[in-house]
């Protein structure tokens, strides 16, 4: 008998077709995210689930769906999965690293430029008819080239950003990470390992690229913001919850840092109202990996993982690293 799998969010039709070659597939064809209860109800009796970061797999799901064997997450981040609970029940979790690294790094740099050079603010200014003349001090921002970029979390995406910063923008790169990079990689990225305090103190622009976990919850809160330069920008393309959004909104309002660029939010799609109220923040709706090519690659990799892990294909499943 063919395994039964659930595709919990709408995804590229050609990817669903691939899954149908191997499995009995039920797809969420709705535009909305199913509630946790709906997910559980649909998942009963299925062996696999194709998931996006909008749904979570936790002990309640595992308890209600004892036949579940594989969770294929279409994302590199997997903070929506209770991996220890899955492992304890022998449920294999897979994610989609590598295929989104360069695209996400491009976006990190784009958001940094947009933030430092006040692009969203300038566009709002122009569209609202406020531009009456050129003036010497209109929309002055901060330089990116030749400044110091701090990278918190130096995994694949952090390194791809550091490479762009060092070689494209002649930035000095400093970074903090759980472990230090090999010396030859540090040299190739022009990157210097520093403690977290020095990173906060010395960065002209601080880029957050670390995974979310209880250990990284509010890694940047009021105390950390207070240590940053008043001229600094903060960019979060990692996960909501790494930044204390309420503390950030306050720091931006009081100009304790210059500006922020945020692609991810605590409790998204809700956005802290204080962030919507201040002009010196660029807000995007979790789109760092959203190019046609990369989203298709992520979707296909998640399908490959599900096919391989349920024993239907040649590739090995790819457990989160
Ligand atoms: C990821 O892959 O983790 C991105 O944030 C998309 O959700």
> How many helix segments?
13
Instruction: Note the run of SSEs as H and E.
Output: EHEHEHEHEHHEHEHEHEHEHEHEH
- Which ions and ligands are bound to the chains? (2R)-2,3-dihydroxypropanoic acid
What is the global morphology? globular
Q: What is the radius of gyration?
A: 21 Å
Question: Structural class, from helix and strand content?
Answer: alpha/beta
What is the CATH C-level name of the largest domain? Alpha Beta
Oligomer: single chain
The average pLDDT score comes to 96
User: Approximately how much helix is present in the residues?
Assistant: 25-40%
CATH topology of the largest domain: Rossmann fold
Q: Could you say how many structural domains there are in total?
A: 2
How much β-strand is present in the residues? Answer: 5-15%
Indicate the CATH architecture of the largest domain. Answer: 3-Layer(aba) Sandwich
N-to-C terminal Cα separation, in Å? 32 Å
Largest sheet: 7 strands, parallel
